[in-house]
Design a protein that fits this description.
heterodimer; A: alpha+beta; Transcription Regulator spoIIAA; 3 domains; 8-stranded antiparallel β-sheet; 4-stranded mixed β-sheet; 14 strands; globular; B: 275 residues; alpha/beta; Rossmann fold; 12 strands; 23% strand; membrane (chain A)
Chain lengths: 731, 275
């Protein structure tokens, strides 16, 4: 019986997952091409990885809303493998690397069976950050030249960066029209990537930025083909190269180097990065899952390994869990693994149906996507974040970064671990603390009076974090947990960061996670591992320090006019707002500029949606109305094209009887149809019909009113406040 | 139960506190106390010892001293056997500047080889400190019955009002590994079931033991055996930890510490090992 219901629920969710899979495939296609090109492999290999990954992991995986395919992190490793193994011959090197990919897949399957999927937990987080930034710089350095239309730039990462100014001069002075046009397409594409998130138009945003680049460059080709007298200005060598019969010409791995040291080195590097990248992504995506499920990491690693083996045999790259595409999936309401599957299906369709069109994409356009990705991985913002945690974290970060860039990835991460450990020794001025206790069990957990109590002894750092993690994972997130560090002499940043993740997980699922016993510790500016620094500012600061901006002053004066109360920052952290459906997939960073009377509160909120290249930080003005009676959960929107798509995707529009006009103009949805119908009295319907349109959401706590997804001007604030007062009266 | 207590006399700065503790315990248990000094019998030493005995708050005691030369471990063990001693009291060493205690090499050897129960004191005190909370293991072991009996007898004698019986359950007994929501639910249910089973077992053992006036609590802990109970005793600031004597201790057990070795490496509180 239960199984049948589950199946029914699955079928019900199918349309929205197909839709999410479609949108994801739009971003996966250009990324697949681009990542493969950047890895020095044939462009189709990236798409093969995405297709195989999408199908295998969707069937056998252990996570829910993740998308799998070729990953950013592997670009640098695979490129290095192809270059060294091929010794100049890229095609042969690619075949050797495929063999390395197959073997790394087998190792990942074994790791999954040994429950060692948590390999990534053994690495200090600042070192991982440094490594990722180095990968970003590596991608950036190589691709920026391709973006300028120059495919032949060679050298180490440092040399490539040094050549950038020359690359720009060459592009400006070039007399080769083909290169000039390719460069212009590349730069325009980069601009699209950068400014895409600034345009909050929902029709524009339906197509992800990378797909816009593809659409525009294919469009440009057709313009020259059909309307313009001159020929397509970009030479074929600067366009993407796909095999003639895409789905039959598979490359086959060459295992003949399998016993050589270079090969083994490549296998280790690929496996290491693939598992770390997947693990980080799975963790990050779990935080976005609106249904708050916990992924089975080891099962996922097994599935990823198997997918990698198959992909390698078909001539595809590694399959890893990817964060940007997964976050797009979540934003498009993908709810189970079938979305990943459909993303693969759509990719197959694209390749089969549009192969001719896809051949028109200039390499420089794809390079622009990667330049942006590389920049995001190594963005100065990340460095600032690391520095905020502590100076020594910056040292770890920079040492790992520089070693990785100048030597290799494995050396880089090993040096990162070593530096972290040395810094821990220096901070504690003791080596015995670590040597004596490293193999001792140091964590005690027991349940008492319905609460889980965890006590940690001696030291807790990346070296023995798995022991703590094993205990914490056994606590259901809807329970109360107390973590006591009072018997622990030293806690490092990696542990603190992970604890913060647990705390968030517990908060999401309604539990309580409290860390105690750190009060007497040297924290703050002197001690590095103070998590307190990481907690975003959510409460009232010393008001006098910062002067109010003009907008803040205006809001204050509106407050005076209306008799409302203005506050720059909330006194206590806001807890009601995150419960609204709108924020299920969006993370609130900060709430400020509160304007409130007894029941209505207007506020500015800063939140982020998506991750990595799909990440968008949005600041918007909203209003919360506190309603005394019980409000059913619903959302109310203006009927538009999107809602027709939702209709198609299986969302139901609730029609209010006797108000055909309202039902036509507004899109109302929610679970409890009868209660919603009851809530929407004639008076309320009339009110909505005759007033300005806002996006409105209800839940038991009250109503959330959203105008545009941006900060409101003074006039808009006034009308929003007025709307709120009148709505409150009607309700 | 405990009729004869043996204490080693080393003329260290701790002697006074150790001696007073031993005399007090002898008084409370109604036991005879004997002291053993491994080394020469000199007039100075005798005088010092006599002085301390006269200072003792416990006036009504029978204290016998043995003076014997030789290897400390052998001498003490021999006398303990000859005199049919029930309890051996040993002092622990405090790590420099840290609030951590461990058992010195001689005391460790004695603990391993002694045929009687051993009491390891971390902070012997010249003044009496009331014992308020005793933690005792409730392992599934044939010795546990005896250990529980001793623990409750001791707590009656010391006037201790609270005894917690810790059931250490090995993680492997769970048979469920947590990897996602479904397995987490399963493991939580399995834990509840094991806990009920353990409580039943311990309650069965308690049937024949006099627990009047004592608050008895059972606490099940999933974790490494021998380690968890020590950590628990420390967290709960217990005054005495009562443990089963280990069944066997070979060289391998010292390399891969388990059970009581964890406790010996870092004493959480006073520990009584029952044999």
């Amino acid at each position: 019986m239960e199984k049948k219901n589950l199946f029914k629920a699955f079928l019900g969710k199918l349309p929205q997952n197909i839709f999410a899979g479609f949108v994801v495939s739009l971003i996966a296609l250009p990324l697949g091409f681009g990542l493969a090109l950047a890895s020095g492999a044939p462009p189709i290999s990236g798409v093969i990885a995405a297709i195989v990954g999408g199908t295998v992991v969707a069937i056998l995986g252990g996570s829910n809303v993740t998308i799998t395919g070729p990953g950013n992190g592997l670009v640098v490793v695979v490129l290095a493998a192809i270059t060294t193994l091929g010794a100049g011959d890229m095609q042969q090197g690619y075949l050797y690397t495929l063999a390395a990919i197959v073997i790394s897949g087998i190792i990942m399957v074994i790791l999954g069976f040994l429950r060692l999927g948590s390999l990534g937990d053994f690495f200090p987080s600042s070192a991982i950050q440094g490594m990722l930034a180095a990968i970003g710089i590596g991608i950036f350095a190589k691709q920026i030249h391709v973006m300028f239309g120059n495919n032949s730039a060679k050298g180490s990462i440092v040399e490539l960066i040094g050549q950038v100014p020359n690359g720009i001069i060459d592009l400006v002075n070039t007399d080769n029209q083909s290169v000039l046009f390719a460069g212009i397409v590349g730069i325009v594409s980069l601009l699209i990537m950068v400014f895409y998130s600034k345009i909050r138009n929902k029709y524009f945003q339906l197509i992800p930025a990378p797909m816009w680049i593809v659409v525009l460059s294919v469009g440009m080709y057709y313009y020259y083909d059909m309307f313009s007298a001159s020929n397509y200005p970009i030479d074929k060598s600067l366009l993407i190269n796909l095999p003639d019969d895409v789905l039959s010409n598979f490359a086959f791995p060459d295992f003949s180097k399998a016993y050589q040291w270079d090969f083994i080195n490549a296998v280790i590097a690929i496996t290491l990065i693939a598992s770390i990248e997947s693990l980080l992504s799975i963790k990050a995506v779990d935080k976005l899952d609106p249904l708050k499920r916990r992924s089975n990491v080891n099962k996922d690693i097994r599935a990823l390994g198997l997918a990698t083996v198959i992909s390698g045999f078909l001539g595809g790259l590694n399959v890893v869990t990817v964060i940007a595409r997964s976050s797009v999936n979540v934003n498009q309401k993908g709810s189970n693994r079938s979305a990943n599957f459909f993303h693969a299906i759509f990719l197959v369709l694209f390749i089969l149906l549009f192969a001719t069109e896809l051949r028109k994409i200039p390499l420089s356009a794809l390079a622009a996507i990667l330049v942006y990705t590389g920049f995001k991985l190594a963005s100065p913002e990340n460095i600032r974040k690391v520095f905020k945690i502590g100076k020594e974290q910056l040292i770890i970060f920079l040492v790992t970064l520089l070693t990785t860039i100048t030597t290799s990835l494995i050396t880089g991460i090993l040096v990162g671990i070593l530096v972290t450990f040395i810094i821990h020794l220096v901070i504690n001025k003791s080596i015995t603390l670590f040597t004596r206790n490293i193999f001792k069990p140091n964590v005690l957990m027991f349940k008492e009076d319905g609460k889980y109590y965890v006590s940690v002894k001696n030291f807790s750092s990346f070296l023995n974090y798995t022991k703590l993690k094993a205990k914490l994972d056994q606590i259901p997130e809807n329970e109360d947990a107390i973590i006591d560090f009072s018997m622990c002499d030293f806690i490092d940043h990696s542990v603190m960061e992970n604890l913060n993740n647990y705390a968030e997980g517990f908060k999401r699922k309604g539990g309580h996670f409290e860390v105690i016993g750190l009060d007497g510790y040297k924290t703050g500016s002197e001690h590095p591992f103070a998590l307190r620094k990481n907690i975003p500012l959510q409460t009232e600061e010393s008001e006098s320090k910062n002067n109010l901006t003009k907008r803040q002053k205006s809001i204050q004066s509106i407050g005076n006019d209306l008799g409302w109360n203005y506050k720059r920052l909330p006194k206590v952290p806001v807890t009601i707002i995150p419960h609204f459906g709108y924020f299920k997939t969006r993370q609130i960073n900060k709430i400020s500029n509160l304007l409130s009377n007894e029941s209505c509160t207007l506020f500015d909120v800063e939140f982020s949606e998506g991750e990595l290249i799909a990440k968008q930080v949005v600041k918007a003005t909203m209003m919360f109305i506190n309603i005394d009676k019980n409000v059913p959960e619903f959302t109310l929107d203006k009927e538009g094209i999107f809602e027709y798509i939702y209709h198609f995707a299986g969302f139901k529009d609730i029609n209010i009887d006797n108000h055909p006009d309202f039902s036509k103009r507004f899109y109302l949805s929610g679970k409890e149809a009868t209660e919603i119908k009851q809530f929407f009295s004639d008076e309320l319907v009339l009110f909505f019909e005759s007033n300005k349109y806002y996006h409105i959401e209800g839940n038991e706590k009250g109503l959330l009113i959203i105008g545009r997804e941006r900060l409101a001007g003074i006039k808009e604030i006034k009308s929003l406040a007025d709307f709120g007062i009148r709505l409150k009266k009607v309700v | 139960m405990i009729k004869k207590i043996l204490i080693g006399i080393a003329f260290s700065p701790n002697l006074k506190a150790n001696l007073f503790e031993a005399l007090r315990l002898g008084n409370m248990f109604g036991a005879e106390v004997i002291g053993v000094h491994v080394g020469d019998k000199t007039e100075k030493k005798e005088k010092e010892l006599q002085g301390l005995l006269n200072e003792s708050p416990v006036k009504d005691h029978t204290f016998k001293t043995f003076w014997q030369k030789g290897e400390p471990v052998d001498v003490i063990l021999n006398i303990a056997n000859e005199q049919a001693v029930d309890l051996l009291i040993l002092g622990a060493i405090q790590k420099e500047n840290l609030f951590k205690y461990y058992v010195g090499s001689i005391a460790r050897k004695l603990t391993r080889k002694a045929k009687c129960s051993v009491l390891l004191l971390i902070k012997p005190s010249t003044d009496r400190i009331q014992c308020n909370h005793i933690v005792v293991n409730g392992l599934k072991d044939e010795k546990t019955q005896e250990t529980l009996k001793t623990a409750f007898k001791v707590s009656q004698d010391l006037g201790c009002k609270r005894v917690t019986i810790v059931e250490e359950i090995s993680q492997t007994e769970l048979k469920v590994k947590v990897s996602d929501d479904a397995t987490l639910r399963k493991s939580t249910i399995a834990k509840e079931r094991l806990k009920t089973r353990e409580d039943l077992r311990v309650n069965h053992l308690l049937k024949d033991i006099d627990t009047t006036d004592i608050i008895v609590k059972t606490q099940s802990i999933f974790g490494q055996r021998g380690y968890s109970i020590g950590h628990y005793a420390k967290v709960k600031r217990a005054d005495l930890l009562v443990m089963n004597a280990p069944s066997k201790m070979g060289i391998l057990d010292r390399i891969f510490p388990h059970d009581i070795e964890h406790i010996l490496a870092e004493l959480p509180t006073d520990v009584l090992i029952v044999k």
